[in-house]
Structure formats: C-alpha cells, structure tokens
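User: I'll paste a sequence; please echo it back and then give the predicted structure.

Assistant: Echoing your sequence first, then the prediction.
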Amino acid sequence: MHLRLVWISNRHPKKTAGPSLTQSLLFESSTFSLSLSPPSLERVDINQNNITSVGARAIASALLHNTHLKYLDMGYNDLGDEGVAFIASAIRMNGSTALVDLRLACTGISDRAGKAIAEMLRDNVSLLKMSLSENENLSKPMRNECLVKIARQWKLWNRLTPKHREDYPGPHLCI
C-alpha cells in the first residue's frame, strides 16, 4: 500500500495559543516532510490550518527538492505576501517539480506576492491549475498577468499524451 494523499484540514479553525496540528507536524515530526516523503505521495491538502509565513517557509524549503508532489492546497491560511512568495520562489527554483495544481485561495496576498507568482509561472512548465480566488488585495491587472501566463501552458498541455490529458483536463486559473 502506498501513501498517495495527506489531508489535514481544519474546517472550523479556532484561535489558540499553541501551534495548529499542521504546524506541529511540520516542525516537530520528522515523518511529515515533503522532501523526504515517498514517491507515491502526490497530494497534500493542508488548507484552513492557521499556517503563517513561518510555516510556508518550512514548506517552501521542502518544495525546493520535491519531484513527485502534484497537488498542494494551502488555501485559507494566513500566508500573506511573504509566505506565498516563499512558496512561489521554491517552485520556480525547483527545475524538476511535478506540481500541476496549486491552491492559494484566501491567503491574504496583494500584488507583491502576485509578482512572485507571475515570475514563478514564467519559469514553471508543470503547473496547469492554480487558485488565487478570495484575495481581495490582488489587483485585476496582476490577476490578468497570472492568467496570461497560465494560458501559455495550453501550448505545453497540448503536447501531453492522451493519458496525461485525462489526469489534467487543461490549464486554468481560478481568480
């Protein structure tokens, strides 16, 4: 049996003085590491876990060397511009990433993080889907720039084999 999914989602987060479950796993457990996870791990859903830029930095560090993760949902966390910039930079610098779906909805970002995302999309050839919805401080021109960069992926997507097209029905950006 192979581990394919890690889903740690706190649908009704409470403000507490201590770290969230996800933060505890990231910082206190050597068993949860995206860079050391088995190649069968393809999906990590850690939305709504009160992750801040500190947690995003740890996840970004793991993403630098990860070559098998295809789906990452970090939406509805307080990542802010700094946290999302860490994630975008790590994905951009990892030339062997397999990530095709990145969810960053409602993460409190503005155009500062939008620029980091646009730079990442310029260099990344694997990312086909991305969600930036519910980020009210991200301007329409910046959203459009990201949309244009995702649209460029259509050319690359059209070169995929029919098997891969079934897994990933086409590039899109949810704004």
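Residues 151 and 171 are 7 Å apart (CA to CA). The beta strands are 5-7, 43-45, 71-73, 101-103, 129-131, 172-174.
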